[in-house]
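Assemble and predict.
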Amino acid sequence: MVSFGRVEAIFIISPGTSNSGGESSKESSRSSTPVLAADRTERLRDKMRRRTESGDHWFSLEFFPPRTASGAVNLVSRFDRMGSGGPLFIDITWHPAGDPGSNKETSSMMIASTAVNYCGLESILHLTCCNQTKEKITGYLSKAKHLGLKNIMALRGDPVGADWEEEEGGFNYATDLVKHIRCEFDDYFDICVAGYPTGHPEAESYDEDLRHLKEKVDAGADFIITQLFFRADTFLKFVRDCRAIGITCPILPGIFPIQGYQSLRQLVKLSKLEVPEEIMRVIEPIKDNDAAIRNYGIEQTVGMCRVLLESGNVPGLHFYTLNREVATMEVLRQLGLWIEDPRRPLPWAVSAHPKRKVEDVRPIFWASRPKSYIYRTQDWDDFPNGRWGNSSSPAFGELNDYYLFYLKSKSSKDALLKMWGEELTSEQSVYEVFTSYIKAQPNCAGHKVMCLPWNDELLAPETNLMMDELDKVNRRGVLTINSQPTINGKPSDDPIVGWGPPGGYVFQKAYLEFFTSSENVTVLLKVLKKYEPRVNYHIVNVHGQNTTNAHDMQPNAVTWGIFPGREIVQPTVVDPVSFMYWKDEAFALWIEQWAKLYEDESPSRMIIKYIHDNYFLVNLVDNDFPLDNCLWQVIDDMFELLDNPPEEQPTDPAK
Amino acid sequence: MVSFGRVEAIFIISPGTSNSGGESSKESSRSSTPVLAADRTERLRDKMRRRTESGDHWFSLEFFPPRTASGAVNLVSRFDRMGSGGPLFIDITWHPAGDPGSNKETSSMMIASTAVNYCGLESILHLTCCNQTKEKITGYLSKAKHLGLKNIMALRGDPVGADWEEEEGGFNYATDLVKHIRCEFDDYFDICVAGYPTGHPEAESYDEDLRHLKEKVDAGADFIITQLFFRADTFLKFVRDCRAIGITCPILPGIFPIQGYQSLRQLVKLSKLEVPEEIMRVIEPIKDNDAAIRNYGIEQTVGMCRVLLESGNVPGLHFYTLNREVATMEVLRQLGLWIEDPRRPLPWAVSAHPKRKVEDVRPIFWASRPKSYIYRTQDWDDFPNGRWGNSSSPAFGELNDYYLFYLKSKSSKDALLKMWGEELTSEQSVYEVFTSYIKAQPNCAGHKVMCLPWNDELLAPETNLMMDELDKVNRRGVLTINSQPTINGKPSDDPIVGWGPPGGYVFQKAYLEFFTSSENVTVLLKVLKKYEPRVNYHIVNVHGQNTTNAHDMQPNAVTWGIFPGREIVQPTVVDPVSFMYWKDEAFALWIEQWAKLYEDESPSRMIIKYIHDNYFLVNLVDNDFPLDNCLWQVIDDMFELLDNPPEEQPTDPAK
């Protein structure tokens, strides 16, 4: 006989549910949206605790703000690249001299905001309090909170000038800043503080410095990141000493891969650290050989990190990147910590702003311009649950607003001219740019076309599946800027089209979006009549002349997923309302990114301007996702009808 | 060359969209939910106009309130049956003597409310104003509005007693009531008024009566239903006369199929109508043969209706049913107007209450008890868009509230005892009742089991597909009360599992819900470990001991549909919160409907009580909808493990 007693033990008694239980609906703290990744809702210290408890090692990356706007554009690209390796967080240093709290695209504040909002990275903003008023500091913190930043590295900072003195009631130590943050913002921010494995250079003693650190933690700091060091022992002793005086929070070692002789000297000078002799002995002889020094730095860092990780006292490593990629990535790869996880929580790049954590649906139009979409909807109050948009949402942000990535290409004007043509002679030469991009082949001048105004990156792997068809239609002036194939229930962990939690199935309706001439559109509309109601279309020109067979202005879900134990998720829709906003952006890119490469009144510029003024933007959805994609057939039919127009029926006047 | 001019003509210029256009988001009156049937949002007069303009004929049905509660239960069943033929609306007469505006289950108000809320029928409530104060009438109208009624048939009614006199400023004519409704409720209600093809019996003349009718329409009535008549010409002349004096609204002929000699005489006496001699000549000789009279009535009515419909002046027919089904249904069938449309807007029976018109998701548990679900959620303020429930919704209504269909079976106690056993001898005899129900076969006493406490109807066609499996498991005490098979993308017009608009695809995850003994549950839990995470389960007993592997208390979508040009619709979910409410109802039905059939302390009652107290309610979902349903395998594995329990491993004390 199987005993029942053992089972009973695993039952959870739900209080208040033995009767009809009005309470239980309150008790259930069911989230308002199907949560696809705990990462999107957890705060940093909880993520850190979860990762530490699960025993896996992780890393984080430190960057400093750039000096120029184009440096900022490059740094944001670096965030995207280095973000793909899976850092637990990144942090942005505070440059008191660089207007760090301003709205300049190079400010610490704006760079951290960009990392959170546009790159979806958990980020820590440094903040120094030395020589600042409380009002000023509160202002920075309020601004950071408003921008969606949730973590602060609280630092004293270096006094400006020699005449600095302690100030009664002012910010004399980082401890004062920690207290101020907790006092003014309660538990909103996660707070990090700095630790000095060899003692702060200005401290009276190592022990005195440890006591200061304990004060910072007691004041409310959540974890510690240390100053760089060169020997694993230095850090491990420091951790032991911290634990001995009752510091229990996580302590992350600051790792500095030596990347060059000059940068090492400069850093050592600033931080007043001593480089151990065994390192100097290796470096001095090769000080003019950058590659050799970097290789040594990688080797030395990997060795030290191995010791740290194997000690069991180090859950994660914090890297001082100096805004460079190669050395840090190599160290992480050798340590096995760089993990490019192809699994995506959603088909599009999520934002880490707290108010967007419930966002689970976007219009497909911005698929290649997610940052533009985030920017243009940044003032929205909420991100609709399960469906896109609603009439009470504010409109999209204006097109003419300035921002780092708005209408800006990552490539230089020269590079763009090489890719898109120094001189255009006809619409046909534009078509050739599109086909070169699609085939990732050199254009007639021998330059590979790596991007288009609507696509900053090369084609997505799933679009590659349709390369032959895309090539064929672009040759004839169906200038595709967005497309997705039909997917009828592929596993959610499919390496190319998968997304969401494991064990699910993802689906897509085929989508095709392109510019084409009004002559083509005239014929296309005739063809589309044959495809009713299978194909939905929206066709619009720059003036807003718009024709569609969409039902009641309702969105059409074109990507969705079915997962175990969850509601349906439909992250991508074709939405008639937002299409009219996208249309403005898509047409503007012809002029802003392409036409303006050429002289005013030049033939090249006139050709792009002609396309902008006269072409239509078309989107097509094949609703019959279990069947083969019919959209290529639609375009073929259009070409067929263009090539063989029906003869005019002669009307016989005698009849 | 194909000219472009012709295409341009069909473009709609959207104002305000040629620039980024903040206005266009306001212009789009996109509804807040994917609308599956215009019928759910249109008001009656618009439906009528749309049907009339499209040229198809329709019908409507008049009922009077019942005298007894069991009469009410039967009438509600009749609404369901007659509703399946597709009436445009039904109307409920007002019985001034029968407390018509009260909360009694037999009142006009409650019957109309039931038709709207629980049967999903567009309904008109009659209202008579004679001898009523304005306050009283306003009270009735407010109550009707609150209950979700949207249409009023405004009547004067018969004066009570002989001493009635016109009252200054009172309700002397139906016109006064129409004016009052428009004055107090603006355009909220659609208003219908009565027309008399042969003149109102109290009117001075036919012309005088027509003028009164014109006044009623001018005061704000939307359409006219006429008194019954016996010759098509009578009605067609009346319509011509109405049009001649400027009455332009729809005029619906009141059709009375003669169903018996006595009922005809009574009606004629009340309405002061004359029966034409050609009809009396036929009827008098057969006045004692009910069947013959009914057949004649059907034939006579069909003939007259054909003339009416062919006249081109009659868009729809209004039937005085006298609360009977046969004659009216037969007339409608012969006219080709009775159309049982298997297409369903959603998998469950919708309610016609205005506030529920956006309702598009329900827990699966109430699949066989939709009226109970509607009743228990009637106080909810909103019906979530796209997903079930949210924590701010009020709790489910209490179980002990009284209502027509709560805990009441349509069958008599006698009939139930015959089906479910005059005397139960063991749990096994309960299992046999379940298997008899599932196989729709007579039980051991020779009575067909037509219902169970959890299922008022025979098995749904889609459940029939699983009859063999259901039979097998019920025999062994897995007492199934709800189930659905896996559906992987069947067309939405599939006659068995289809729902929603055409051209779509519907899906289901397999679902199985049953009561079973604690011994079985113990083994089942072991088996379920092998099926993680493919199978989600909730297992609970009457005391609320609850075990589940549901993720974060999130609902699991188990029925969904993908349609052309729309968002995903997921009308059925397995929701952990509502399951705890359903559990109370499901366990209570054992006692209220079954145990109480037997004497207190009788063995039969004790057996049911034992099951109620000791069995568990289990639900299982197979998340892997593209594969074959594994839930039967789960149950098989449970039986297998019960039959062949693993031998205890003898522990060797020597080792």
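Residues 523 and 645 of chain A are 9 Å apart (CA to CA).
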